[in-house]
Design brief:
- Among the domains are: about 160 residues, Rossmann fold (3-Layer(aba) Sandwich); about 100 residues, 2-Layer Sandwich (GMP Synthetase, Chain A, domain 3), CATH 3.30.300.30.
- It is about 30% helix and about 25% strand.
- The protein is built from 16 helices and 25 strands.
- The strands form six sheets. A nine-stranded mixed sheet has the order 2-1-10-9-11-12-13-14-15, sandwiched between helices.
- Helix 2 crosses helix 3.
- The termini are far apart.
Amino acid sequence: MAYTAHKDTFAKDNLPPRDQWPHFKFDLPELQYPDKLNCAASLLDARIAEGLGEKVVFYTPNEAWSYQDLLDKSNQVARVLTEDFGLVPGNRVLIRSANNPMFMACWFGIAKAGGIVVATMPLLRARELSVMLEKAQIQFALCDERLDEEMKRSQGSALKRICYFNGSGATGSGAELEERMATKPVEFKNVLTASDDTVLIAFTSGTTGKPKGTMHFHRDILAMCDSYSNKILQPHSEDVFIGSPPIAFTFGLGGLVTFPMCAGASSILLEMASPELLINAIQDFKTTICFTSPTAYRMMCDKTNGINVSSLQKCVSAGETLPLPTFEAWKRATGIKIMDGIGSTEMLHIFISATENEIRPGATGKPVPGYEAMVVDENMQPLPAGQVGRLAVRGPTGCRYLADERQRDYVVDGWNLTGDAYTIDKDGYFWFQARADDMIISSGYNISGPEVEEALLEHKAVKECAVVASPDETRGHIVKAFVVLRDATQKSQELGEELQSYVKNSIAPYKYPRAIEFIDALPRTETGKIQRFKLRQLEEEKFKNRL
């Protein structure tokens, strides 16, 4: 039997059967991990050993934490969990907080104690929290006291204890966790976990409905650093990271925490990171690397006048496809080429991208070193260049759903099927076409929703848009666009017709949206992804009501 530090075997017992796992690749020397490792020791304790204890790891508008501060407080959290609450390795611990240093002290404290982190986003409500509590059989919760209402309302049959902390940086708040931490020494002996002990259960953000718990090992946390960050992003210790994604979202965990820490760099943690706040923080903190969504980059383009963003050196986009007009607008505004990438909660982080010197505008990029990808047909046969098919990928990370039958859909023949439609060109660059659900078949034509969106976004009146299939008796489906205007007072039938003509003149006329609906806002997950499935459901309900 393989070594494990987990006394609570829930995670191991609820992994998918081995024959449903993806085929893992550890081809790079950096990916050859020992059988026993704790990712907290590799990311945090190791920086102290390198002499970086006094360096700031996290800035906020109110405070600054050094690497030593983070180590001390993480060790104290680990002691509270083990000594006061009786946590044993393998127990699951929920964290409920916005992006702040105490969130990360909790994260590393759990990992140091051999626990399993289940991080959640601030906007989740009690009903959603209850699903996670029950699905992961969570025993303990660490919650920012400013988010106590929904936490107290949530239910979980295994939940033993909720402990509140203050994440605002205020002193003397009387929060229980800090009071208990104050009584604990700052030393803690890390649990020597196995490299393939689970350390994180990340729940998908809900772009397709019911969320799934994805299980990631200690080695996976390091693998996303040793592949994407070290090979593509290539940060150095003087970099200052910033971004908008919640740390509870794996895009944010990498971009704001593990990537900077692996490089011995610093990161800005913002609890609120609207485009306006984000671009001002870039100026104020003189940040060099930014992680955010295509939507945020597009909105920040309009706010660069009078804002000094000259410190920026690299910008990363993921979470949803990067439209070419956004890439070009950001380059005009800042001179920086956005590094696009595709990742997923199942794969943990980005697995196709390109360095800033190898970017091909409009393309996602090539497989990140350590990964391989192909475009396949319905029989898992590779397709030639230029043909649209399903994206299949494998590497050092991959999908392991927590007790979920959908594992069989995501992993086929050892490959992870991300649900994306792609083409590959003769030079090996991967070009996004649509989410599989966003390919629209109308009168026998295959139409990419994102391609229509890209055409619409080039019109000066359009702020945002989402294109979906709308049921139609004659054509099966038609292309319908939901459009958010820069100026809502411009809504009119005439503008709708103008947008239709504009698309006809930009791409093949059969792809134009036969219906346009102006709306005030698009439905989104907390991480900013557009929930197109909600728009499709709305159209399906309208169609049924017409019959």
